Amino acid sequence: MQDVRTVRAPSMLRLAAASLAGTAIEFYDFFVYGTAAALILGPLFFPTFSPVAGTLAAFGTFGVGFVARPLGSVLFGHIGDRHGRRPVLVGSLLLTGGATVAVGCVPTYDTIGVAAPVLLLVLRFLQGLGLGGEWGGAVLLTAEHAPAERRGLWSSFPQVGPAVGFLLANGVVLALSATLSEAQFAQWGWRVPFWAAGVLAVVGLWLRSSLAESPSFLGIDDHARVPLVEVARDHWRLVLLTAGALAVGYAIFYAVTTWSLAYGTERLGVSRTVMLTCIMAAVVVKGSLTPVAALLGDRYGRRPLCLAGCAAAALWMFPMVALLATGAPLLMFLGFLGAMLAFITMFAVIAAYLPELYEPRVRCTGAAVGYNLGGVVGGALTPIIATALVEQSDGRVPWGVGAYLTGIALLSLGCFALLPETRPVPVVRAEPAMD
C-alpha cells in the first residue's frame, strides 16, 4: 500500500467518522431484520407453521441476506476496483436503505397470503446485496487513506459501526416493546424500525457526499478489467482461507444477537426486554473496546490477535451456552460478554488485515468477497442450525449449540494459522554517522 502520511489526523478523523456513521446505518438496516425475525416475523408471515417451524422459516429469510452478500461484494467490488471506492458507498447505502423501508410496508400473510413471505424474501435479498458492497467500500476508503503505522486504529472505526447499528436497531425495538402492548407491537409497532431506516439513509448520504476518493485507487495505473476473474484465478486460496477464518466471528455474533434472543424468549420464557438488555450491554462493551484491540494489532500484528480470539472463542462456547441456559440476566450477560470479547479480538483488526492481504487493483473485490463468504458459513446458518439443535436436545443446556460453535472456532483457527502476517514493518531511521 502506498505511503499516505500526508493525510493529516483531522482529515482522517472526519473520514473515519463518516465511515463509522455509514456502516452503522447500513448495519442497522440489516440487524433490525434479524431482531424482527427472532421476535415477530414467524407468526406474521408464516402463521400456518408451528411456532418452532415459523421461527426457522423466519431465520431462513434472515439467512438469504447472507447468501446475497457475496453477490453484492462481487457487484460493488467490480465498481470499487474499476471506478473507485466512493461510488460504492453511495450505491450500497441507497439499495440497503430502500429495501429496509420497503420491508416495513409489506402486508402480512393474513392480508395477501403467500405473496407476503415471497416479498419479504426478495427484499431481504436486496438488503444483503447492498450490505455486501458496504463493508468493502467503507473499510477500504478508510484503510487506504490511513498512515501505515496506525492503519489498524483508523480502520477500526468502520468496525465500530456494526455495534452502533445493532444498538440503534435493538434500542428502537426495546423502546417499542416497553411502550406498546403485544397486540400493538404485532399490528404496527414492528414496522417502525424499518421505516426509520429511510431517515437514517438520508443522513448517511449527506455524510458521505464530501468524502475524497482513495489515494491507493487513484494511484493504480492499470485497473483490472474483470476483478472477479483475477481474484478467482490468482487469489482463490486466499479467498477461501479468509472466508473460513472469519466464519467464527459471524457465528458468535449471530448466536448471541439473533439465536439467543429467540431461544431466551421462546424456550426459557425470559422477557423480550430482559434479553435485549443483556445482549445490548455486551455489544456496548464490544464496540467500546474495538479501537483498543485495533491498537494492539498495530503494535503486535494482525495475525496474533486473530489466533488469540479464535482460541478464546473455542474455549468459551460451552460456558456461554451453560450461562445462557440459566435464564439469569447477570449470568447471561457474562456469557455474552465473554463471546463478544473473543469476537472483537479478531474483528477489530480485520479491517486492516484483509485489505493488506490483497493487491490494490483487486482489493475491493477480493477483501469483500472473502469477508462476506465468511458470513454465509458463519452467519446465515448459525441461527437455523442452533434452533434445530435445541429442538433435538433433551436437556436444558443446549450443549449441541456449544459443540457447533466450538467446531466453527477451530475451523477458523486453522485458517488463520495458514494466513501470513501483514502488519507494515516500522521504518527505522538511521542515525547520521559521527565524525
Description of the molecule:
The protein has 435 residues and is mainly α. The protein is built from 18 helices and no strands. α6 (115-143) crosses α16, α12 (236-267) packs antiparallel against α13 and α12 packs antiparallel against α18. The chain is globular and about 60 Å long.
Order of helices and strands: HHHHHHHHHHHHHHHHHH
Residue windows where pLDDT falls under 50 for at least 5 positions: 1-7, 427-435
**Proportion of beta-strand residues:** under 5%
Amino-to-carboxy terminus distance:
37 Å
Q: How would you characterize the largest beta sheet?
A: none
What is the count of DSSP helices, taking H or I runs of 4+ residues? 18
Report helical residue fraction: over 70%
Global shape: globular
Provide a short characterization of the protein structure.
This protein is an all-alpha fold and 435 residues long.
Write the layout of secondary structure elements.
Layout: H1 9-39, H2 41-45, H3 51-83, H4 85-103, H5 109-112, H6 115-143, H7 151-179, H8 182-187, H9 192-208, H10 215-218, H11 227-234, H12 236-267, H13 272-300, H14 302-325, H15 329-357, H16 363-380, H17 382-391, H18 399-418
